[in-house]
Structure to design on (218 residues):
DNA sequence: CAAGTATATGATTGCTTGCGCATATACAAC
DNA sequence: GTTGTATATGCGCAAGCAATCATATACTTG
């Protein structure tokens, strides 16, 4: 598209909140741990090295933002990545950062 | 790729900071105002409706994150989008939000 | 029912950050 | 030099949020 869409303040607020959800290392660790399939909370606690309470809180944040989905099975709750754009977003940012960093390294010589 | 890359804590910290830069409505307004080409600070103040001081601060944040670039011309400073992945990121998020919202609307009936 | 396990949540604390005001810097014109 | 304009920045305040501790809820087993 040539002409870019203009978003309202409310829309930009939503976009900002979306980015804010992804702006915490612990939440990115959780997302990363779920790249290869669903895990329950205990597995995520072990994979990320966080406390159970903290992991649970971040999972709630991610779930209410529709980034993750929940599945209860008895005592356990399994989480999975519900939004397919999440991996794409992470890859875009990682690629951009790698480029930026390699430029900085190259500029040292 | 089948196997996903595992990022270190430091790398995830960088990714998180990247997302955090995009997690403010005013900064998104500035980025949006620059979609169709560079503008100086005064033009950005008018386009976003913010104060000069606040706009200047956010421009500094965006510039030091290498999201925007600066060009001085006499008294004025012109800013432009320096990272080509930024529009892609915004489009991805906006598309995802539109889908999510339309599902919520549909679930009301 | 009681006991045990998995997960969620209330309350508190400390840190970060966006905003507004005033002022400082940088540059141009005269 | 002085004055005026464009942009940046130091400071203080208030709001938001992540981390921790303790406790609560939900479910299973016996």
């Amino acid at each position: 598209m040539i002409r870019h869409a203009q978003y309202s303040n409310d829309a930009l607020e939503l976009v900002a909140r979306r980015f804010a959800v992804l702006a915490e290392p612990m939440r990115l660790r959780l997302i990363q741990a779920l790249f290869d399939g669903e895990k329950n909370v205990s597995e995520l606690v072990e994979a990320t090295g966080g406390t159970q309470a903290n992991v649970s809180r971040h999972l709630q944040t991610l779930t209410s933002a529709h980034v993750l989905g929940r599945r209860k099975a008895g005592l356990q709750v399994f989480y999975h990545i519900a939004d397919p754009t999440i991996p794409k977003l992470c890859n875009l940012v990682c690629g951009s950062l790698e480029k930026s960093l390699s430029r900085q390294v190259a500029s040292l010589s």
Notes: Residues 40-42, 52-53, 55-57, 59-60, 74-77 of chain B lie near DNA strand D (CB under 10 Å from a C1'). The mean pLDDT of chain B is 92.
